[in-house]
Amino acid sequence: MDPCPFVRLTVGNLALKIPVATKPARSVVHPSSSPCFCKIKLKSFPLQTAVVPYIPPENQFPENQVQTIAATFHLSKTDLGSLTAKSIFGGKLSLKIAIYTGRTGAACGVNSGRLLGKVLVPLDLSGVESRPFVFHNGWISVGKEALKDSSAQFHLNVKAEPDPRFVFQFDGEPECSPQVFQIQGNIRQPVFTCKFSFRSTGDRNQRSRSLPSESSSSRGWLTSFGSERERAVKERKGWSITVHDLSGSPVAAASMVTPFVASPGTDRVSRSNPGSWLILRPGDGTWKPWGRLEAWRERGSSDGLGYRFELSPDMSAPTIVLAESTLSSSKGGKFVIDLGSGSNGRSTPANSASPVCSPRGSGDFGYGLWPFCVYRGFVMSARVEGEGRCSKPCVEVSVQHVNCLEDAAAFVALAAAVDLSMDACRLFSQRLRKELCNQQDSLG
């Protein structure tokens, strides 16, 4: 399998130093007592906001500090082409950063932050597909006094590095048992087939005809997630999708192990009582657990699909949350696992169009704990559509996380589970398409 070229542009190691005036004005918000933040913009990409730590004027930025990511931009080959294209209306490409003192957000339509200054970092993206490049690393003077020694100082690191990815595209909606193609430029090559089926509570082996038989211990492990829940009239249960290679051998599966049940007196799956999927990989003649996806319907103005994904290799090992966010129920969005490259693995650009995922759990955020230590940086993303729209998920997986075909298949199965969760969490007053309705169950 040949990957597609991608580039990861990161902004990190932010810090701010502001000289203390001898007679500070009362109207000025000083960062030593109030937080600072910045807004980061790259051409047509969504605006990202990040907190800026304050450093006393007499201190220096710590040498050899591990990169702390504030914002990340993922650039495909198409993105690079549009960013580097010459325009008669614009100058050279630059990253634009506006620094504010005060808190983020707005009150009564007025921004609460006070603009301190703006920074432009020129970007030359030619050749970054094949080699890393640092555009800036150090201090920049900002504000009206930028040319004087008394100016505020803003520290940042801006760099780009190759981040090749495998790209997979479902040829149809997951419930229609589609083929999955690998995309490489204009080439579409089939690599997987999917089989959607219903698993009845009386026979867990009927998820797919081609699944290997389960051992009794495996069945008991699956049962522990779903059978203890009180059955309700309003529920969606037993969905399963199996990913096969081109020879017909099963290489991954996603099985709904906790039914999606409407909360009492409502028509929605609540956060306090989510449905869940188990993502499985074959091993030793049976299915072995790899991860667990929970999903629910958020309340409030967002009214989106809430989700949480955690790695769970077996019952004895501690789990770690790799992704937890919300997708728009009407517009869809991107499910993303991106662990950044900071010491704590967090990568949290606010106001980003894509969900932000931070690992949580036992151990040093998973990095000192096998097998979590293998997951760093960008891991995967899956684009899914909103309710009522034809969804053919597009899955991107970092090359560094694919050592075999089964690795890629696990991420494809996870993407299918996310897409199917959009239907599983639809209000029970709405009907589902016929492919999702089992005649033996009450599916709403």
Automatic annotation (TrEMBL):
Organism, scientific name: Rubroshorea leprosula
Location of region: Disordered: 201-222
Name this polypeptide is given: Formin-like protein 18
InterPro entries: DUF1005 (IPR010410)
Compositional bias per record (Low complexity), positions renumbered to this chain: 208-219
